[in-house]
Amino acid sequence: MVQRILCVIILVLVVTLRAARPDEKITIWWAQWEPADALQVLGEKFSKETGIGVEVIQIPWTSYQDQVFLNFGNDATDFDIVIGDSQWIGRGATKGLYLDLTEWLPTAVDMSSVHPQAARYLCEYPPGSGSFYAAPCETDAIGFIYRRDWFEDPAEKKAFETRYGRDLMPPDTWQEFRDIAEFFHRPEQKRYGTSLLTGREYDSIVMGFQPFLWAWGGDWGDPETFEVDGILNSVGAVEGLRFFIDLMQYTTEGGTNADYVFNLEAFSNGSTAMVLDYFPFYPGIVKQMGEDAGFFRVPRNGQRRFISLGGQGFSISTKTSVTQQDLAKKFIAWFQKREIQEEWITFPGCFTANIKLLESKKFREASPYNKTFAESLDYLRDFWNVPVYNELLAAAVQNIGEALDGVQEPKQALDALV
Length: 418
Prior knowledge:
Elements: H1 2-20, E1 25-31, H2 34-50, E2 53-59, H3 61-72, E3 81-85, H4 89-94, H5 105-108, H6 116-123, E4 135-147, H7 148-151, H8 154-164, H9 174-184, E5 192-195, H10 204-215, H11 235-246, H12 260-268, E6 272-278, H13 283-289, E7 293-296, E8 307-316, H14 322-335, H15 338-344, H16 355-359, H17 361-364, H18 370-376, E9 380-381, H19 389-404, H20 410-417
Parallel strand pairs: 1-2, 1-3, 5-6, 8-9
Antiparallel strand pairs: 3-8, 4-6, 4-7, 4-8
Helix pairs in contact: 10-11, 19-20
């Protein structure tokens, strides 16, 4: 009888311990920025509700990609979830690094509630196939921040109207943008017209160039036929690159090699009228400059307005145990809940893929840049997410960079890139 009682007590203790499972923990890798801080806060909320720990490991952007794929070279990854750039998904899917979520994801989130551009570029491979290797996490886009106080200065407004014959306001076209950059470019006063994305590390020069490529009628290639010649180096593509290069005369010192961090500094130091960067990098500037900072969409050329997509999705490592994969799915499903997404968008720089939330007053008023972000989403495009994207990226950085530096003519550079 005593033995039976002891057995029952031991069984109860084991069940209780298993229910609590204090050893259960999900490890997430992401880049180092404010959205990752917010995810850790939500992870702690998830832990209180479920007893499952969450640790978000942040890695500097400059080494993030290398660290992730080096880790994938091991028998087991140090992470259960990786929040990977959209262009990684082809490699992750075809190399068997990302868990196939096709059957599971629609049970965790109503995919009709996800903005189609986010679903297409952040979650699917190939895009539009309905095969999922990531779940929505951070939707992102590039957009301009501008010196609102300069634009609204009565003396500046009068001078601009006298010179250009129209009101000084955020530009809607690239031609208007060029005029404003020219107007504010006063290097003798240490004032500059603009700083675009031209950095040679990772993807910044490509993110900066492709809105011009697309707006002038070019493209990286035909996604159906895979033809590149005559598309990437078309007359329109060459004109777009030429316009991009022409704007370099109005950039800040060092502006022909400006990455994301460079541009934040160019604006926050008070020297530059209009700066291009990704929206999640803007919370710190808003905190610093308040109402002196304003925002506008990437301009159009004629009727063509295209904006470089950013953002990352949750992908589950195939090199973690099935138990850990199941825990990862629990967290991802929890994150997709409407009430969690409503909380997510209250953190600076955190953007949802939920269509209704993007359209909501709550989202648009949560931060001064949210309205512009929401207005940008329908114009998003992505570049390569195929397994060899890194090789394509290296070729683009080299040839577009040489065009900006005057080493190659625009047509010559695009022919070489083809």
